[in-house]
TrEMBL record:
Any GO BP: carbohydrate metabolic process
Protein name: N-acylglucosamine 2-epimerase
Organism annotation: Magallana gigas
Reaction(s) catalysed (UniProt annotation): an N-acyl-D-glucosamine = an N-acyl-D-mannosamine
Family per similarity comment: Belongs to the N-acylglucosamine 2-epimerase family.
PANTHER family found in the cross-reference section: N-ACYLGLUCOSAMINE-2-EPIMERASE
Matching InterPro entries: 6-hairpin_glycosidase_sf (IPR008928), 6hp_glycosidase-like_sf (IPR012341), AGE/CE (IPR010819)
Subunit and interaction comment: Homodimer. Forms a heterodimer with renin and inhibits its activity.
Length: 78
């Protein structure tokens, strides 16, 4: 969202950095879904995947919103 509003490339770079980190640390490749909690070093601190602040709809909603924003940005460039 920050890049969409400001067009500051630093925000786009930061998005890519967070995206890469998230997919390399939070995703449970073995059993599916995403871990909810990591330690500062990026290791899994708790292996449960739900709780009062993380429901099964958050990850798909986040991915859908990112896809929509990225499509809008690409459409504006064309």
């Amino acid at each position: 969202m920050a890049y969409k509003e400001t067009k500051d490339k630093r925000h786009l770079d930061r998005f890519a950095q967070i995206f890469d980190y998230s997919y390399s640390h939070f995703v449970d490749e073995e059993n599916g879904e995403w871990f909810g909690y990591l330690r500062k070093d990026g290791s899994v601190s708790m292996d449960f995947k739900g709780g009062p602040w993380k429901g099964c709809f958050h990850v798909p909603r986040y991915l859908m919103m990112c896809e929509q924003m990225l499509k809008e940005l690409l459409d504006k460039k064309n």
